[in-house]
Recover the amino acids of this structure.
């Protein structure tokens, strides 16, 4: 559980920096640069002290990265500017847990107990309550439905990616050891490949039709801020955060790891209030607490 708690703290910091970054870069650009930096840092470690590309499960880890990072993180960054860091994390992290648990049940035969089913129901109710639009909410109401769709895409990608990662751990060659940071490196390559391809298509589109209405070029005054946000996000998210996350997945089912990490929306509340000026409504806080309580109950279903 120590690794899952550490990942929760790091992902909370990553979400706040990611929300700010999403106002300066598109989802494709932000993910490409942070994955590139994370891949370089993780690659240095993996090829010097870790397993590098070895272990016999590179293909599965790579596909896990395509789904978890490519689909999951792209949806995350599209949802950030619409829903804000806290509500985006409530939706993606809390829903990723039942997504992962259901996929493990259907694919890997990890049976769901009655307690897990009830906890999953509580998660859905809590997330729905937290995300329901209101007059006092700071959510972008014009694009609220789009934010929900991007959040669902992110939650599914993260949940399915986590299950694929556990599957990769199970097929590592006998006698081989692939530590958490090396697993994160093999996964990040998949996400980086997806973002590189999307970035090329984006550049072609911009060259042919020009940037979109909300796409403004960076000014010299914001370049340093964006660079700092990319570094902070890359370290807290796909580098150290995912390293701790992979470490946790080595010993616990994906649904349980994601349940612990779902505590991050609660940790984000004071950060979002300070850095985003958010004033969460009572209903959204109650919904967040209900959703997090559901994931805590789900986590307690694990047999030691």
């Amino acid at each position: 559980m120590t690794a899952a708690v550490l990942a929760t703290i790091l992902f909370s910091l990553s979400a706040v920096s990611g929300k700010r970054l999403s106002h300066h870069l598109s989802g494709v650009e932000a993910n490409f640069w942070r994955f590139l930096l994370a891949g370089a840092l993780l690659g240095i470690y993996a090829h010097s002290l870790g397993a590098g590309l070895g272990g016999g499960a590179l293909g599965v880890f790579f596909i896990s990265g395509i789904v978890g990072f490519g689909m999951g993180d792209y949806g995350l960054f599209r949802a950030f500017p619409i829903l804000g860091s806290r509500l985006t994390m409530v939706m993606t992290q809390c829903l990723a847990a039942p997504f992962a648990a259901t996929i493990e049940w259907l694919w890997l035969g990890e049976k769901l107990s009655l307690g897990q089913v009830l906890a999953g129901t509580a998660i859905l109710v809590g997330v729905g309550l937290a995300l329901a639009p209101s007059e006092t909410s700071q959510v972008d109401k014009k694009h609220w439905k789009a934010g929900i769709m991007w959040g669902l895409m992110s939650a599914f990608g993260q949940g399915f990616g986590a299950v694929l990662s556990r599957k990769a751990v199970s097929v590592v060659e006998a006698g081989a050891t692939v530590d958490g940071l090396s697993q994160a490196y093999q996964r990040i390559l998949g996400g980086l490949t997806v973002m590189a391809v999307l970035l090329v298509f984006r550049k072609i589109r911009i060259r042919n039709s020009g940037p979109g209405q909300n796409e403004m070029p960076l000014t010299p005054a914001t370049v340093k801020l964006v660079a700092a946000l990319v570094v902070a996000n890359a370290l807290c998210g796909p580098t150290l955060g995912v390293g701790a996350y992979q470490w946790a997945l080595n010993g616990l089912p994906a649904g349980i790891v994601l349940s612990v990490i779902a505590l991050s929306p609660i940790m984000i509340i004071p950060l979002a209030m300070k850095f985003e000026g958010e004033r969460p409504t009572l209903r959204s806080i109650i919904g967040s607490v209900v959703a997090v309580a559901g994931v805590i109950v789900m986590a307690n279903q694990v047999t030691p």
In short: Residues 58-108 form the longest helix (51 residues). Residues 2-299 form one domain.
